[in-house]
Amino acid sequence: MSFPPKDGQVEGEGVTPGATEREEPCIVRYAEAKVPAALREQVTVLHQQAWPDAGDSPHDPALDPWTVLLVTARGAVIAALDILSKEIEHEGRSYRISGLSAVVTAPDQRGKGNGRRLVAAAQEIMAIRGADLGIFTCDRPLRAFYENAGWTVLDGTVLLGGTPQAPFPSDTPGFDKVTLAAFFTERARQHAHTFRGARIALYPGETDRLW
């Protein structure tokens, strides 16, 4: 896989005038606040289709949110996700971590590898933006999807969401979550074992309670 585009640019040659739908869709990324309106409107529609009762509020700016899109040559968004990041302390060490949020593919584009391509590319984006590791939770039925995109399951690992005063752990009764990760830097790989079977103090806040 080639490296992802620079900020606000597309992978490869991008969208060109007169392009046809037969051309390969491009990966594009933006700081959440800088997503062009035409693309943001399409992402909002995808979110509403996937989570009709959840609303579509922006992420907490403190989590440095970035939006990553898979866009056709004609500018149609066929898959989207957000990357959230923060610093954490774990086992006496500081790490820059990133996670996935709001991963969605257009209903008529599912089963074609589009979501898998975007989720796999997110690892590279996290790494080149300075994350030591990527870590997030998903519903258990989606485990195979993320594993096929290159993420590794951390059996027994729990992410502590919310805040220290009002924690929101991923093993809350009624949840059936799996934690997945990818270790990018040498120091993260060296200490990867400390993240397995651990309770990790993520604490992203009240806006994005868990990722």
From TrEMBL:
UniProt cross-references to InterPro entries, sorted A to Z: Acyl_CoA_acyltransferase, GNAT_dom
Region annotation (Disordered) ranges: 1-21
N-acetyltransferase domain boundaries: 28-185
Organism encoding this protein: Streptomyces mashuensis
Stretches of the chain forming a coiled coil according to its record: none
Residues spanning the membrane: none
GO molecular function annotations of the record: acyltransferase activity, transferring groups other than amino-acyl groups
Any Pfam family matching the protein: Acetyltransf_9
Signal peptide as annotated in the record: none
Name of the protein this chain belongs to: N-acetyltransferase
